[in-house]
Amino acid sequence: MRGIAIIGGTGLTSLPGLTISEERRVSTPFGETSAALIKGQLNEQPVLFLARHGSGHTILPHKVNYRANIWALKEADAYYILAINAVGAVNPSLKPAQLVIPDQIIDYTSGREMTYFDGSVSPVVQAGGAVPVVHVDFTEPYCPLLRSHLLEAAHKSGIELAGSGTYGVTQGPRLETAAEIRRMAQDGCDMVGMTAMPEAVLARELDCCYASISVIANLAAGLGEGEITMTEIKKYIAQGMGEVCSLLAAVILKIQSDG
Ligand code: HPA
Question: With a 6 A CB cut-off, is 9 part of the ligand 1 pocket?
């Protein structure tokens, strides 16, 4: 069985129902992970868990050490990586607290460390230490196999969600302007968040099968009434988290039975 990891985002710094068997800080060639890497069992299935923003939710999206996090999960034998992301809705058909399984990404971030292939710890170092130029295919940024497991698990468990969508990734930590959101809508984004990149591409560079369960936390800037508040964001994430946990349990069973 190939290992399963969960990366918890905003609203999921620990995993309800997880029985912890080991918790250890991990240092990688890229530095330390955001939080201790947890090994445990969810519904009697082995899983790894890592809190993307730290165990106390203190690390801003642009400061997350994405390279260390994905490296540590791969080293701990993760193949399937289930990422939880809080997002704002750009597409008016998406409603707060709803879940989405995105299938595409547009990357608007800048200045983040977004590859393993740029130095001596590259996964493809050749004899003599040379690092060849590598361009990974990213046509489908999310692993189609894991996405289909998620969609089937949701269907079987009666969880209603949006089965596709384009995730626009902004740099943050501020939220967007109304004009930025109008532009993102024109670009084809259905939702906006700050954490899908470079996480998704780093997982691809290490040959992991990575997909996201995104939770709509708010209507994106200019689409709702008044200001977007952290209180509102936290309220809708908390509302969606019950379904996220049910979906995680169901998809882990599905992976175990299908491989
Ligand atoms: N914009 C960016 N990131 C987010 C949002 C948003 O509106 N909501 C939750 N994460």
Answer: no
Q: Ligand 1 centre from 219 Cα, in Å?
A: 8
Q: Is the CB of 88 under 6 A from ligand 1?
A: yes
176: Cβ below 6 Å to ligand 1? yes
CATH for 3-113+136-258, options being 3.50.30.60, 3.40.50.2000, 3.40.190.10, 3.40.50.1580: 3.40.50.1580
Q: How far is CA 52 from the centre of its chain?
A: 9
Q: Is 218 in the pocket of ligand 1 (CB under 6 A)?
A: yes
How crowded is the C-beta side of 31, counted as CA atoms within 13 Å? 9
Nearest-angstrom CA–CA distance, 86 and 99: 9
Instruction: List, for residues 105-125, the tens digit of each pLDDT value.
Output: 999 999 999 999 887 677 766
d(CA 224, CA 178): 10
The rounded percent of the chain whose pLDDT value lies above 70 is 95
pLDDT reported for residue 130: 72
For residues 128-150, b (16+ Cβ closer than 10 Å) or e, as one string?
eeebeeeeeeeeebbbeebbebb
Structural domain boundaries in the chain: 3-113+136-258
What number of residues does the chain have?
Answer: 259
For residue 257, the CA-to-ligand 1 centroid distance in Å is 35
* C-alpha 94 to ligand 1 mean position (Å): 13
Cβ–ligand 1 distance for 86 under 6 Å, the answer yes
